[in-house]
Amino acid sequence: MLGRRFLSSIVKRNKYSSYHNHQPLIRTTKPPSSSSSSTHETIKLLSPPIIARHYFINAFRHRPLLKGQNVPCFRSFSRTASVGAEQKEGLKLLVNGGVQAQKAVGTWLFCSAAWVFSLVVLGGITRLTRSGLSMTDWKFTGTLPPMSDEEWHQEFEKYKQSPEYKRVNKGMKLEDFKFIYWMEYAHRMWGRALGILFVLPYSYFLRKGYITVKLGLRLCSLFALGAGQGFIGWWMVKSGLEEPPSEYVQPRVSPYRLAAHLTSAFAIYCGLFWTALSVVMPEPPAESLAWVRGAAKVKRLALPISLLVGLTAISGAFVAGNDAGHAFNTFPKMGDTWIPDDIFEMTPLIRNFFENTSTVQLDHRILATASLLSVAILWLSTRKLDIHPAVRALIGGTLGMAALQVTLGVSTLLSYVPVSLGSAHQAGALTLLSFMILLNHTTRKPSLSLLKSLPAVVKSQNF
Q1: Cβ(210)–Cβ(97) under 8 Å?
Q2: Dihedrals φ, ψ of 12, to 5°?
Q3: Residue 330 has pLDDT above 90, yes or no
Q4: How far apart are CA 266 and CA 429, in angstroms?
Q5: Spatial separation of the C-alpha atoms in residues 411 and 462, rounded to whole Å
Q6: How many of the other CB atoms lie within 10 Å of CB of 218?
Q7: Given CA atoms 412, 136, 252, 164 in this order, what sign does their dihedral have?
Q8: pLDDT at position 34
Q9: What span, in angstroms and rounded, lies between the C-alpha atoms of 362 and 115?
Q10: How large is the average pLDDT for residues 210-217?
């Protein structure tokens, strides 16, 4: 899991920071023995399961700051991650009730984010196995699956009336139909289970008084978006149950509706992940004003790159919606040319960027390459900046993930989009976006009281 140890250290450091506000920012002695009682209050955080735990365990170890000097960046990632609101001028915590409340709410939100992550991956597998059109009706509350042979035959007869069966799966056996039906059914019920996972803990924490007004409004907005996701999903599926305009065209869902469905899922995930980080880490890592200024410079680059990464992910939805991954299965050229001749054959011109197979794939290639180059530029431009070692490690991790994602994309294309690589590529997109969210969250501006307490530079000491 991402950052178990560094988030644990955040809470440990906070427990005795309120007793030692006048001590040096970087300690050379152990904290009082009384602080050992905070061991049972550490945050054991659930983060997106795709992000490699091994990297983060090692990325936040001691790293050289100056020649012959080390800073315990992992242990002192955030000097004041969780403190009383009355002690932090300009800082309003999202959770009432202290460290235990932060731990409970944060764990719940990270679990919800991980659930959305798994839901996106499951949705990708459902699409790649062509299972999404197997259920020809939809109810908001859901229904029980077929329990008898008669019920299975009834569902199969409904599917036989769909364009997909008539043009793609004609002659399919009942056992094959059961497989795609169960895939779509699992995807729908997994989404409904997320609603239960969200509502029940929310009601409990609200009753306990942990949820502030600001957090409550944010979570209600995310819940509304999640509830609407079910309607968007059916709206998308319904487009694939309609007769295609030509007898030579395979039935598929609208690329516009698929992009809306995937973008909404990404937005829910990003909102949950950012909110969870804000709950458990209300202050960014800051040990000196020099590091704060360096983080501000990183943020100015990280924000537009994050938007580019998000745009690349959305363009991937149009690749999937147009089944463009099965065209031009070569790299770096598209067939025998760098740019196909038919990229602007549709009218009006704007349609080519969303419906033309050649143009859609070319756009995705360009955006993916631009994303990788932008992250590489971020890494190069920050090498000489005076920034927190944890921020530097995050930038390196983001570059590694961007390179891995491009490799997955090329491998998926050259292999004619197998289910394993296709789903891994979709999970990689969300993982890379997770890195960008974490980087933007880590480089945000500290509260006014923390800024006032920081020295100009980190004290030069060995550990």
Answers
A1: yes
A2: -60, -45
A3: yes
A4: 10
A5: 46
A6: 18
A7: positive
A8: 39
A9: 32
A10: 94
Inter-residue contact 48 to 431 (CB < 8 Å): yes
Q: What is the mean pLDDT of the segment spanning 322-329?
A: 91
Examine residue 32 and say whether the peptide bond preceding it is cis (omega within 30 degrees of 0): no
Residues in contact with 289: Cβ distance below 8 Å, sequence separation at least 6, in sequence order: 451, 454, 455, 456, 457
* Residue recorded with tokens 């000491």: 461
CA distance 32 to 148: 66
Q: Which residue has the tokens 């049972």?
A: 40
How many Å separate Cα 241 from the centre of its chain? Answer: 30
Cα distance between residue 264 and residue 270, in whole Å: 10
What amino acid is encoded at 400 in this protein?
G
> Cα–Cα distance between 445 and 300 in angstroms, integer?
12
Q: How far apart are CA 336 and CA 340, in angstroms?
A: 9
Taking residues 353-367, what's their average pLDDT? 95
What are 72's two structure tokens? Answer: 């315990």
pTM of the model: 0.79
Helix (H, G, I), strand (E, B) or coil at 457: coil
Torsion of CA 393, 399, 401, 406, to 10 degrees: 180
Omega within 30 of 0 (cis) for the link into 72: no
Q: Within 10 Å of residue 153's Cβ, how many Cβ atoms?
A: 13
